[in-house]
């Protein structure tokens, strides 16, 4: 396939995962050159060769354990210094399915390090350059569980709620500076993530599981449309606008200087 005009470098974390692989390939097809990251080098190199073969785009790899403070900060420094980066997709987002009474401190630390800390630092590393250039895209992968925590996905659900709140404040600051901050909320669509978390994928009701190719195609279409909020399986987007309106009413209802009458 002939090499297409470049739209700058797209950085993709979690690039070797079920979603990341297809998403990265879709970005290459859209004209981005790629900087792909995951923990392990070998699958990244295989993916890089496959994407270059299929799309003709240049692909660089940068393996980094995002739960490792030093590795994260080296990676962020690399991103902050590169003026050609035009898109950051924070896809890496591990989960643990386990009661809060038995989740280990290591599992808590890793989930928060990748889903909260790394996402925040990675956004911070690109945002100054995006503002200076007056353009750029950040895509943060959250989850349906951000809106309805699942008890055994306790820390994971909370970390995804963080992704939503962080993205919302970034949207408010950056949308008028030419920068798109997009939030993607996957439901169930790929087995490996669930199995890694410790949840048997086949327990999910089949009609609640989206085909992975359909999911990624929908998410990439939403990127083409420059949507801020992506609910790939939600048919009626009014549900989201009503949810947001309720949230605003809740906050407006709290902005008083006296206790509610039931507490007086
Ligand atoms: N799949 C679903 O059904 C589903 C549902 C809801 C939300 N999501 C969200 O969608 C996103 C993608 O999911 P997925 O299904 O593609 O996941 P996946 O198949 O489990 O892939 C995980 C990816 O993240 C990387 N990763 C994990 N821990 C890392 C770390 N400490 N440092 C650096 N990279 C790390 C993995 O690299 P290595 O293999 O090298 O570790 C791999 O590339 C995640 O944010 C997930 O929370 C997925």
Automatic annotation (TrEMBL):
PANTHER family: NADP-DEPENDENT 3-HYDROXY ACID DEHYDROGENASE YDFG, VERY-LONG-CHAIN 3-OXOOACYL-COA REDUCTASE
Family stated for the protein in its record: Belongs to the short-chain dehydrogenases/reductases (SDR) family.
Keyword Cell cycle: no
Gene source species: Paraburkholderia hiiakae
Coiled-coil ranges (or none): none
NAD is among the record's keywords: no
Name of the protein in question: Short-subunit dehydrogenase
Keywords (A to Z) from UniProt: Oxidoreductase
UniProt cross-references to Pfam families, sorted A to Z: adh_short (PF00106)
